[in-house]
């Protein structure tokens, strides 16, 4: 497995990965919208995991100078529990730390208990917060 920064040639593989990993995501999270937005801002914080030429994982990160964020952490179902997700998260953490980031946030759907367990195993904790959002 290789982890590297996203390249334009990865688009089709990431799109298929996200369709598998996030089948019910809203339109604004789809690859056609999210990837160009990420490439316009901090493109160096978008990583893919490859097995040969195949995209088997992805993570996007962001940093606003105050907090880091993780987004779109996805792993092909056939590669789950093989260390791909952990390696991607650690690579994003490394890149954020290099920018001076001292705290990383992420959001998980409350019903996704397996993903909550995954992040807890990596040292993340559920915080006493309420996540609010507004579409503009």
Topology:
Blueprint lengths: L1 E4 L5 H11 L9 H10 L5 E6 L2 E10 L4 E8 L8 H15 L5 E2 L7 H9 L15
Parallel strand pairs: 4-5
Antiparallel strand pairs: 1-2, 2-3, 3-4
| Number of helices in the DSSP assignment | 4
Largest sheet: 5 strands, mixed
SS-derived structural category:
alpha+beta
Reported CATH architecture? 3-Layer(aba) Sandwich
Biggest sheet: strand arrangement: 1-2-3-4-5
CATH homologous superfamily caption: Gcn5-related N-acetyltransferase (GNAT)
Overall morphology: globular
Give the total of beta strands. 5
Tell me the β content. 15-25%
In short:
It is globular, with a radius of gyration of 14 Å. The longest helix is centred in the C-terminal third of the chain and has 15 residues, at 84-98.
């Amino acid at each position: 497995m290789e982890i590297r920064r996203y390249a334009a040639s990865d688009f089709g593989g990431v799109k298929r990965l996200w369709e598998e990993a996030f089948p019910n995501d809203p339109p604004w999270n789809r690859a056609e919208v999210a990837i160009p937005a990420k490439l316009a801002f901090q493109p160096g914080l978008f990583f893919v995991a490859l097995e040969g030429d195949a995209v088997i994982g992805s993570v996007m990160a962001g940093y606003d100078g105050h907090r880091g964020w993780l987004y779109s952490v996805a792993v092909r179902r056939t590669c789950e529990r093989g260390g791909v997700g952990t390696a991607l998260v650690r690579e994003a953490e490394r890149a954020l730390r290099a920018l001076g980031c001292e705290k990383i946030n992420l959001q998980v759907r409350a019903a996704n208990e397996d993903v909550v367990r995954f992040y807890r195993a990596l040292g993340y904790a559920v915080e006493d917060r309420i996540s609010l959002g507004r579409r503009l």
